[in-house]
Design goal:
Strand order of the largest sheet: 1-2-3
Structural class: alpha+beta
Low-confidence stretches: none
Largest sheet: 3 strands, mixed
Number of helices: 2
Helix content: 25-40%
Radius of gyration: 15 Å
Strand content: 15-25%
Shape: globular
């Protein structure tokens, strides 16, 4: 796993439990799809420069897995959807 999380990322407002659940799910899915193939997972964060003044913090989770089909992408975000 590779992470690029600057030490000066500002705190974000939101539901800590829900945010951590989303991140755990993304990481778990990435680990599951990569299996023992030796793939890569990257976590990156960046602020848009106005964070703390109503700005945004962007967090990306990427993996080197095979990706999703068009049908799977259309269902992303629906409750209880899984492959």
């Amino acid at each position: 796993m590779r992470q690029q999380l600057p030490g000066d990322l500002p705190a974000v407002r939101g539901d800590a439990m829900l945010l951590s659940q989303v991140l755990r799910t993304l990481m778990s899915n990435a680990v599951e799809v990569l299996g023992t193939s030796g793939g890569r997972i990257e976590v990156r964060g960046e602020a848009d420069g106005t964070a703390g003044r109503g700005g945004m913090v962007r967090l990306e989770v990427r993996d080197s897995g095979p990706g999703m089909t068009a049908e799977q992408l259309a269902r992303v975000g629906r409750p209880f959807y899984t492959t």
